[in-house]
């Protein structure tokens, strides 16, 4: 079993609480992420990436108590190495970094009132212009009815294919009053 899968299981099983999403609820959340690129991948620009750190913002509009539309923006700084395979003394590598901005829209399904959810998103990512998609799972932890913390992991393609481990905290949450 890979370390990434173990982290996923610990995050998913270690959390308890309930989530009470309602039709018409709107929220904006922001937080941190750590990107773990796929191992041993040298991209077409002769760079590979060790890790990334960044910020994420998410807007959510609930259609029902289990379905929601999402709009996500991520800003991530990746660090790694640049390779020069044409050096007459043999291949060389040097430290490098890159900044990536990602904008995606998608869908969230909440499985139960316990707050476990799955996301599917698609969009674009910069540092060039790449199409990007993400599939993730997570858990919403409600704090004092008006705040929440979403923690989870996703697999994202685009500029750097990676696993993102992330946590976002609600900044604004508005419930629809019938």
From TrEMBL:
Protein name in the entry: Outer membrane protein beta-barrel domain-containing protein
């Amino acid at each position: 079993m890979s370390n990434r899968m173990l982290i996923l299981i610990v995050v998913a099983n270690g959390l308890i609480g309930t989530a009470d999403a309602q039709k018409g609820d709107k929220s904006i959340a922001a937080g941190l992420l750590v990107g773990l690129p796929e191992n041993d991948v040298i991209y077409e620009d002769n760079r590979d990436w060790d890790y990334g750190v960044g910020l994420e913002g998410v807007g959510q509009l609930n259609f029902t108590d289990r379905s929601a539309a999402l709009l996500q923006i991520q800003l991530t700084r990746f660090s790694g190495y640049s390779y020069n395979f044409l050096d007459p003394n043999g291949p060389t590598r040097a430290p490098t970094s890159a900044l990536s901005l990602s904008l995606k829209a998608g869908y969230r399904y909440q499985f139960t009132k316990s707050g476990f959810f799955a996301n599917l998103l698609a969009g674009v990512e910069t540092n060039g212009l790449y199409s990007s998609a993400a599939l993730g799972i997570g858990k919403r932890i409600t704090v004092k009815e008006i705040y929440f913390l979403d923690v989870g992991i996703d697999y994202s393609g685009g500029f750097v294919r990676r696993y993102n481990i992330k946590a976002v905290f609600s900044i604004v949450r508005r419930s629809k009053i019938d």
